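Appendix B. Chain record.
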Amino acid sequence: MRWDNLTEGPTGPAALFGADAVVTRTFDTPEFRGITFHEVRARSIVNRVPGASRMPFEWTVNPYRGCSHACVYCFARKTHSYLDLDTGLGFDSQIVVKTNAPDLLRRELAAPRWTGAHIAMGTNVDCYQRAEGRYRLMPGIIEALRDHANPFSILTKGTLILRDLPLLQEAAEVTEVGISVSVGFTDTGLWRTVEPGTPSPAARLAAVRTLTDAGIECGVLMAPVIPFLGDAPEQLRETVRAIAASGATSVTPLVLHLRPGAREWFTAWLGEHHPGLVERYERMYAGGSYAPTWYQRQITRQVHRLAAEFGIGPTGRGAARRLVTPERPPVGESAEPTQLTLL
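Structure tokens predicted for this chain:
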């Protein structure tokens, strides 16, 4: 594996971590069976979003690479190829753990050059995936952000975030804290096949209720809306109704996008489970990674109408807004931003 190929750039340090810093472990417990963990000591943890990106945040922290949520559409699959790791099953089962993330973050936040900018988490892979239950990196990360009163946001599908609710409350007393939970649909059959390693949509929405009842504002990123599988009017209605019932402060729809790496894996899944849809997907995504703009806008209008009906507004100024991928860029602009969101 190309551990030494994780460079910061042509003029940056040789690598973000060296091969001699990697410890590989497996655990013979039901929740980790079949998963390999590569423990590394990172050289940096606060990452600047590339200038070409259209993401509405500038800095991220990602304590893990790879994700046991195993979402078949996950854009971040491509990043595993940088390590010579497989972007399919390897992405789901070969998890890189930056074991020194909390201490490193505390040091970087204390550096004179750091100005206290907002830090987004969950923008690459989920920081509350199953590995977090064992490695417990997020408490130390949140503590560091709290102690420096540094604003931050978290996007997650993981109900494990509730473990850290007291820390989130403490942080919210001294800085801006934004939480978004990703729930693209409530169809349990669809969930079991496309997001097999995640908590159920109902469990995620229950976590939203717990967070909001505890005084932590929590929006829902309704993502991904999956064409032909999760976009029927009755499916959208049921999902928005459930989101509203959870007490979410906002709902923001995001249509499935299929970037290289994710596209191949999703297409293989589609061919196995819904072969009759393969040609329709080829037509819909013929122009690139994004569904046509007209389709994205149609879904957005439908969701916003339903949100108004159920008494929940679209995302306003706040944490959830910072975590949303824009629609397909206009002609002439890059359609493949290098810093990506979770979905």
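Further analysis of this model is presented in Appendix C.
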